[in-house]
Amino acid sequence: MAIDEAQSAGSVKRARKAVRGSLRLLDSAAHSVRRAEASGAIRADCGKALRRMLHDAKVAARQWLKDGP
User: Fold this and answer.
1) What is the pTM of this model?
2) Rounded CA gap, 48 and 20, in Å?
3) Are 8 and 62 within 8 A, CB to CB?
4) How many CB atoms lie within 10 A of CB 18?
5) d(CA 15, CA 8)
């Protein structure tokens, strides 16, 4: 959702704000994955794959913030 907002933002300032919001959501999602793994709700290999995808998305978002639109 926040990524879509960044793409359609009318200004760079709004886009950067949306991407920063996305980073917070990605951190929250990673925390949820770790909790689900710890509780046994998901298998460790599944959790690892999910964490890798979240990490890759965070790296891309941080790179976008660094390089700009």
Assistant:
1) 0.79
2) 24
3) no
4) 19
5) 8
3-state helix/strand/coil string of 40-61? CCCCHHHHHHHHHHHHHHHHHH
Residue 33, judged by CB atoms within 10 A of its CB (0-12, 13-18, 19+), counts as buried
Contacts of 47 (CB under 8 A, 6+ apart): 33, 34, 36, 37
Q: Which residue bears the tokens 């976008």? A: 64
As a whole number of angstroms, the distance between CA 42 and CA 47 comes to 7
pLDDT tens per residue, the chain (69 residues)?
A: 455 556 666 788 888 888 999 999 999 999 999 999 999 999 999 999 999 999 999 999 999 899 876
